[in-house]
Specification:
Blueprint: H1 2-8, H2 18-38, E1 46-49, H3 52-63, E2 69-73, H4 78-89, E3 93-97, H5 107-113, E4 120-124, H6 136-145, E5 150-153, H7 165-168, E6 172-176, E7 188-192, H8 230-246, H9 248-267, E8 272-274, E9 286-291, H10 296-307, E10 312-314, H11 319-325, E11 332-336, H12 343-358
Parallel strand pairs: 2-3, 2-4, 4-5, 5-6
Antiparallel strand pairs: 1-7, 6-7, 8-9, 9-11, 10-11
Helix pairs in contact: 2-8, 3-4, 9-12
The chain binds pyridoxal-5'-phosphate.
The site of pyridoxal-5'-phosphate has 11 residues, from helix 3.
Length: 359
């Protein structure tokens, strides 16, 4: 990113001079790296956005209109639920498939919901509250049998779990850059399968077809108006290159081992109540729990002040998931780990929790 600021600094597609060309190359290289990571044949169908929320909004508002029905799950993040509830106020119909108390998706209820026509099925790849991974390939198969396209929110999995759009069979993939892709905040994107058309959320300058006052009708320009976050995209490209060099499988194995260590440790902590699947192999690198008798906000405060450990507490922007888990409205304490986390850090976290639990 520093190199991009110091040496490049141009605006991609806005001129033919060397700095503009170099900036366009940075953007193109990032798109190619993302395409490789997600097994996308045509990287020009990846639209770069400022986060997964923007990508999801583009997909939802670009596709869903009055009278359309959308199916989703009860464990979605507000980045899906809030646009859907707004679309509902504008005349769309939203069907929410319930989640079970262990966070799993009820496939029977899903199959029932899919029996009536729908414009779209939107779901998360993994719960951001308890980390369980949903059976997306199976779900996409069921949806396609009814002619319903699938939009996947891969915020929690991109970079940390295999995300192959062809193997999963999804039609749109939304991802954020600042989690397991190791990009900076303010980056993300949306991929659309060939043949899918979205109404743009934003229209404006693209550097292409400038003689026309109408928005270009080709990707990515159709959905990418205004000057891009080239510096952020350079960082995202570097992050994705790092993930590709390590291999998602290696990262996944590392996070799985840390997960098993964390869950084993948590079982020894007095008053700890872990949530979700206790098998680390079935979840991404995060875990939610509560300590009986101590509020999540107190646990978070003590961890930060006394131990220098930072975690997320509360409802994690997913109130319906907490309702299904029985942890609404107080929420939980949530820890997450990544490719860079060490076993020593996991042990230190468990030790800190045990100290807090002992009072
Ligand atoms: C499953 C899920 N979806 C969406 C989001 C929103 O991400 P962003 O704020 O980067 O748009 C998050 C972030 O925590 C998430 O975990």
């Amino acid at each position: 990113m520093l190199d991009c600021l110091e040496r490049i600094g141009g605006s991609p597609g806005r001129s033919g001079h060397r700095m503009a060309v170099a900036a366009a190359r940075v953007v193109a290289e990032t798109r190619v790296a993302l395409g490789e990571l997600f097994n996308i044949d045509d990287p020009s169908r990846i639209v770069l956005t400022k986060n997964v929320t923007e990508a999801l909004n583009q997909a939802l508002y670009g596709l869903v209109g009055q009278g359309d029905r959308v199916i989703t799950t009860a464990i979605e993040h507000n980045s899906v639920m809030r646009p859907l509830r707004h679309l509902e106020q504008k005349g769309a119909e939203i069907s929410v498939v319930p989640g079970s108390p262990d966070g799993a998706l009820d496939l029977e209820s899903l199959a029932l919901a899919l029996e009536r026509p729908a414009r779209l099925l939107v779901l998360t790849h993994a719960s951001n509250v308890i980390g369980n991974v949903l059976p997306v390939a199976e779900v996409a198969c069921l949806a396609h049998a009814q002619g319903i396209p699938v939009l996947l929110d891969a915020a929690q999995t991109a970079g940390a779990w295999p995300v192959d759009v062809q193997a999963l069979g999804v039609d749109m993939l939304a991802f954020t850059g600042h989690k397991a892709l190791f990009g900076p905040t303010g980056t993300g994107g949306l991929w659309l399968r060939e043949g899918l058309e979205l109404e743009p959320l934003v229209r404006g300058g693209t550097g292409s077809n400038s003689e026309l006052e109408l928005q270009p009708d080709f990707l990515p320009d159709q959905l990418e108006s205004g000057t891009l976050n080239v510096v952020g995209i350079a960082g995202l490209g570097a992050g994705v290159s790092h993930v590709l060099a390590c291999g998602v499988g290696t990262i996944r194995d590392h996070e799985g081992c840390l997960g098993a260590r964390f869950l084993d440790g948590l079982r020894q902590v007095p008053r700890a109540r872990p949530l979700g699947p206790q098998d680390a192999a079935a979840r991404v690198g995060l875990a939610s729990f509560n300590l009986d008798g101590v509020s999540p906000s107190d646990v978070g405060l003590i961890l930060d002040r006394r131990f220098g450990i930072m975690c997320r507490i509360g409802l994690h922007c997913a109130p319906a998931a907490h309702q299904a888990l029985g942890t609404y409205p107080v929420g939980t304490v949530r820890f997450s780990w990544s490719a860079f986390t060490t076993e020593g850090e996991i042990d230190a976290a468990i030790e800190a929790l045990a100290t807090i639990a002992r009072g």
